[in-house]
Structure formats: structure tokens, C-alpha cells
Amino acid sequence: MFPSFISFRHLRRYREIAKIFLAHGFGFVFNRLGPEWSSLRHLLQRRSSKISGSTPENLSVHFRLALEELGPTFIKFGQILSTRPDLLPPEYIRELSRLQDTVAPLPWEIMQPVIEQELGKSIKESFSIVDPQPLASASLAQVYTATLLSGEEVVIKVQRPNITDIISVDLEILTSWARRAQATPLGKVYDFISMFEDFAFTLRNELDYGREGRNADRFRLNFANEKFLYIPKVYWEFSTSRVLVIERIKGIKIDNIKALDEAGYDRKRIATNGARIIIKEVLEDGFFHADVHPGNFIVMPGEIVGAMDFGMVGYLRDKDRMDLIRLYAVSVRLDSDSMVEQFIRMGATNVEVNRKALARDIDRLLDKYHNMPLKEIRAKEVIEETMSIAFHHHLRLPPDMWLLGKTLAMIEGIGMQLDPDFNVFTFSEPYVKKLTWSMFTPNRKWLDAILNTGVEWGEFINAVPRAGLRTLKRMERGDPVPIVLEVTNRVKHSLDRLFARLTLGILLAAFIIALAFLIPGTAPGSWVQLIVLVGFIVVVILGIGLLVSIFRER
Fold it and tell me: Is 497 exposed, middle or buried (0-12, 13-18, 19+ CB in 10 A)?
């Protein structure tokens, strides 16, 4: 009998998956499975292929090749795994980053009906010209160049037929594996089911081209006041969940150094523009393009960067960015213990982690870069070393943060091709300081928080009498003695004063911490430092006054 988690309707696909992994030298995995797999091993009727020199690096290469051979679901799964250094060793992460999503194209005669079915009309009713030779062919879709009846040049991204059915089968199989893995000892360390649900959600979103079009519109809105990035227009009247028609933009591939030089472009300015894009996306918008390989970016006249393919994006909440700033602050101080505390605060690990061992490994990493000029530190190297620590100590940072690390490494690689002196850390330093200032100084978000807190306290004060009366009525059902709770104006006034002092105390504490944090970052003797020092003194005096007033009333 086959294991209960194997569906007979998926048996052919199970066999195909197992054969491919066996052919790439992963037979030892099946040999370690329980006796319930004996029937499956018998069905395969072959032994695993022997791969010469089976080193971890060699197996990581064959793991990538196996995923590419298994098709779109597993290719996407590998791409997601490449952003999870807490799950796989560094050599696997590096190899999965090289996954190729390029496949042989299907004939136009197969793809044309998909477009016509989605648009509800013939090709000639929508386009004056369509080149039947695809511009690109990937596992999920093919891309064609075309011209609208109105004359605009566009590209058509059309989903391969039956791809959703193929992916659905694979997702069901991977779901069964996730449930199986959750029951193993590793399931106590990792939440495999939640991880896979996140992957399935991401993949299904990528199959929705309406979502990709909305991503493009959001980027265009975010960069409406910036001239160094161009986002192509989406033609919504010709777009559906399976077909996306978008403006065709032309230029030179961002990594074609020879062509850029021949065109007379300023490569240093291009690198700067590329870095400004990702810094704004991450530190200001919290919404970033997460597929920044060179094929998705071109250079247009004026050193303007043109972006394409908005299917893979990352999100950073305000809390995520605040966590990054805190990590940056303690790492600059070379404070490994505080970094461990920050990791715990972020939920990257639990309180049972071996703090001494983690702090020791972080110390070794920080010591390597101690007193090294910022311009000499490479993001790719730092991220790879951090990944090694994450795997060893099972650090579970949010997936979008690992995706951000991968994005920064890729943008650094492109930047260094354009300008050998380019350094993403040096470039981002003033932006980090600006964000730090905005986060720790009074702003609209502070005001909104105070107003929301005030509203909640007001609702609480008004609700206390009603809630008290309802509670007492329930008590009365078992006690004949009536009890009445009366909230007098004096009590209400006391609560108001308590709330006012609480709010003032929180504000003063926040100001003291923020100003103390900002003092070391200002230039000595400057007027900015003078203002900060005066503000710090004033706030401390107000805080002391608040304490004195509290003790006087006791």
C-alpha cells in the first residue's frame, strides 16, 4: 500500500518527481523514509544514480537541476527557498539563486486561442500587428510584441494553457509533504505548513496578472514625482487575470556595458539612479521590486531606468523598517548582545536560543568589519555570512526581509558592473539617517497614535459604567441584594487626569529617548546639535516636573 498522503490520481506525478530526484543522486532520501514507502520504491524499480564526487556543492547543483526539470511549481518553489537561509545551507541558497525560468516556447497556434478566449474577441479586433515569435518564454507565460489598433506598441504577457491545473496538482503534492514534514522532529523547529501556505499564496498571486498590473500602477504612483524611473502603462481594457497588455518600452539592458558606453550614457549616474530606486522603495514606501535581475531593467535616454515584470514584489511594514533601523543601530555599535535581543524581539528566534553561541558568531562577523571603511564593505558578502549564521541558529526572519537581502545583493552586483566604486551601504547611509530622524521625531503618525489612544480611552471611560451595571445584574440573579455601581464626576475627573498624565509621560519618555539617540548623530558644534541639546534639556526638566507633581499629591 502507498502512504496515506499519496493520492492515486497524482500517482504518475509522484513517480515522475521521485525518478527525477533519484536520477540526480537523492536516492538516500528515499532510503531513509519509513516502511510505508516500500511500495513506492518497488514501483520505481530503479536505484538512484551515482553522482561522481558527491559533495554538498555537487548535490546543491543537482538539486537546482532537478527543480528546473520538474517544471514551474518547483522552479518557483526553489526561488522562494533561495530567500530562506534559515531552511537550507548556504551552498544550496547560492545555487538556487541561479535557477533559470526559461523554457522552450509553445507555438503561436496554441497561445493565440488563449488570448482570444480571455479578451472575448479575435486578435484582429484588438491588435493591428502581433509578432508570432515570442519575445520571451518562461514556465508560466510567454511574451509577445504587438501594436494596438490605435498605434501604441505593447507587449502581451499570456499565461500558458492548463498551467493552473499543473500547478494545482503540484501544490496538492507539496501540501501533503508539508504535513508529513510537520510530524517530524523538524516540525517542532519550523512551521512547514505555514511556510508552504505562504508559498502557495505567493504562487497563486503570480498567476493573477491583474495583480501584477496593479503592482505596476502602485509603483508608478509611488514614483510619480521622480524622473529617474519609468514604469510602463497598463492597458486594462485588454488585460485579464491570464493576459496582461502593457506598454512596450525600449532601451539598453542595464548590464550591457559596451552598448551603454557606445550610447554615451553616464554609468555612474545610472548606478546612482538604480540605488535611489531600491532605497526609496524599501525605506520610504515599504513596497519593493523583488526580481531585480538585469533582464528586468533597461536604460532609456537621460539615464532613466525603465522597469519591467512586476509579478514578484516585497512588503515591509513600518514595524519591519523600525526593526531594521534598530538592527542597524546596534550593529554599528558592535553590540552583539543587543543584536541577539533584537532578533528575539523581532520573533526571529525564541527565548530558548543559545544566546552565548549566537552572540559569539555575531561577534566574529562584526569583528571582521570593525574599523573597515563603509565603502569597502560588500552587501553580498555580509548577507551570505549572515545567512550562514541564520541557518546554524535557525533564525526565522520574515521572508520579505530575506527577499530584501537578496534584492540588495543583486542591486549591488548591477551597480558594481556600472561603477566599480559603487557601494550600496555608503549610498544608503544618509537615507537611513533621514529615516531614523523621521521615526524618532514627532510626526503625523505620532499624532494619529495619540488621537487613537485618546479615542480608545474615551470609549473605555464611557463603557465602564455600562459594563459594570451589566455585570452586577448578572450577579443579582443569584443574590437578592441589589448592588448599584455609580461612577461620579469625581471618579471620571480622576480618570481623565490619569489618562492625561499617562499620555504626557509616554510623550516625554519618547522625546527623551529620541533626542538622546539623535545627539551622537549630529555634527559637533552645529546649530542642529544645539537645538537637539536644548530640546533634550527642556524635555528632561518637564519630566522631572511631572514626577514632582505626582509625588506631591501622594
Answer: exposed
In a domain, 548, yes or no: yes
How many domains does the chain divide into?
A: 3
On whether both 239 and 367 belong to a single domain, the answer is no
CB 95 within 8 A of CB 219: no
Whether 184 maps to a domain, the answer reads yes
CA dist., res. 428 & res. 442, Å (int)? 23
Convert the pLDDT of each residue in 413-452 to its tens digit: 888 888 888 877 677 777 766 666 655 555 455 445 545 5
Distance CA 120, CA 114 (A): 10
* Last residue of one domain, picked from the residues 228, 248, 268: 248
CB within 8 A of 8, min separation 6: which ones? 2
291 tagged catalytic = yes
Tell me whether residue 17 is in a domain: no
Per the residue annotation, which of 291, 309, 361, 400 is the catalytic one?
Answer: 291
**Structural domain harbouring 173:** 104-137+140-248
Please give the pLDDT value at position 264: 93
Cell of 109: 497556434
Contact status, residue 419 vs residue 268, Cβ threshold 8 Å: yes
Alpha carbons 184 and 49: distance in angstroms, whole number: 27
Residue 95 domain-assigned (yes or no): no
Alpha carbon of 277 to those of 70, 315, 427: distances in Å? 35, 15, 12
Confidence (pLDDT) at 448:
52
Locate cell 558578502: which residue? 381
